[in-house]
Amino acid sequence: MSQLIYNPFDMEVHPPRLSPDYKSTILRAPTKPLVLLKQSLAELSGPVFGDFNLGEFDHDLTKNSIKNGEPLGERIVVHGTVFNENGQPIPNTLIEIWQANSCGRYVHKVDQHDAPLDPNFLGAGRCMTDKNGNYKFYTIKPGAYPWGNHYNAWRPNHIHFSLFGANITNRLVTQMYFPGDPLLQYDPIFLGVPPKGRDLLISKFDLDATEPDFALGYRFDFVLRGHQTTPFEKI
Amino acid sequence: MLKQTPSQTVGPYFAYGLTPEQYLYDFKSLAQNELVSIDDNPITIKGKVFDGEGNVIPDAMLEIWDNQNNLFGRFGTGTEKDHSFVFKTAKPKPIGTNAPFLSVILFMRGQLIHSYTRIYFSDEENNDSDEALKLVPVERKNTLVAQKKENYYHFDIHMQGENETVFFDI
């Protein structure tokens, strides 16, 4: 049996573990060199959620938590394709989504930012890519919010994503930003990404995906680690 | 070749999206910390995640993957009183001269990219002949081995310091 070997994380685009301007990395980033592991079956497998029973409105954050009306804010539709580095689309892969509401407030109990919660917006969702690797979901554009990293620090508008891909080497947790956001140039989390990678985290406004009289469209593609064709020796 | 999408931190507010039922949010969880039913005689693995000053990290999220039994679990360190993580799962079996282990993926605020480690077990004979453990400097091997206690396995994760856990580049 031969298997694929997955490419390493491309450190030309991924942030380093220690990124001192993002202060929380200072006591939490591993300091010793990582031990290089030959990929074995444990790394070349992973959980499969193809049969996870998505709720009817899991892909629609404007509807999945309605209590007494519509959530407030600007409705958007976000879509794109999940690829690997080889350019192959990844079908039937799960995308988990979470974000702040339009005022920049998270439902999370730890978030103490003095901005209103929206009773009709949880800010969590999920969707699955189709057979061509495409996904789409509806939400409210998240607001910016202050945080304690440094004086007058504000996070740019962003949506959090979690993806699994083909196996655990492909695991990706990331954040999508919006074009033209003036806060990006000051954000140490975004700037933790090397210059070559930054544009890859900014969605593109998409007039073709914009739904008339309903929601603005944004496109954001994901690229997970690809593989070489070297055969893998089963151990 | 396309360029990989860069990683970003999971941040402090992941719970209602990734571990909603554990944190009592009204949204269905994808995965839990009890991976097998009580009838299957699960083992319990329990521990804490520590930062570089030895403080317990209360906003980490661990995922465990057992490819042998096709089991996946997820748990945040924000709900137990002492900020432990707890998993109840099956114990994998040794394969050949390799020792049984669980793969761990670790996320937290302050990690711009997740970390990979493994949980081995102190009561297993093959730990000395395990192919992956052989790659680890001898004095750091113990950071990957959960210690068997009376009714659970104890496994702490140290992000830094003298006992810094071995993290893998996979």
Automatic annotation (TrEMBL), chain A:
UniProt xrefs under Gene3D superfamilies: Aromatic compound dioxygenase
Key word Lyase present: no
Gene: pcaH
Lineage, top ranks: Bacteria, Pseudomonadati, Bacteroidota, Cytophagia, Cytophagales
Alphabetically ordered keywords of this record: Dioxygenase, Oxidoreductase
GO molecular function, a single term: ferric iron binding
EC number(s) recorded for this UniProt protein: 1.13.11.3
Family of the protein in this entry: Belongs to the intradiol ring-cleavage dioxygenase family.
Protein name per the record: Protocatechuate 3,4-dioxygenase subunit beta
Intradiol ring-cleavage dioxygenases domain span: 78-106
Single GO BP term: 3,4-dihydroxybenzoate catabolic process
Keyword Oxidoreductase in record: yes
UniProtKB/TrEMBL annotation, chain B:
Record GO terms (molecular function): iron ion binding; oxidoreductase activity, acting on single donors with incorporation of molecular oxygen, incorporation of two atoms of oxygen
Superkingdom of the organism of origin: Bacteria
PANTHER family the record matches: DIOXYGENASE, PUTATIVE (AFU_ORTHOLOGUE AFUA_2G02910)-RELATED (PTHR33711), PROTOCATECHUATE 3,4-DIOXYGENASE ALPHA CHAIN (PTHR33711:SF9)
Protein name: Protocatechuate 3,4-dioxygenase subunit alpha
InterPro entries, per database record: Intradiol_dOase_core, Intradiol_RC_Dioxygenase
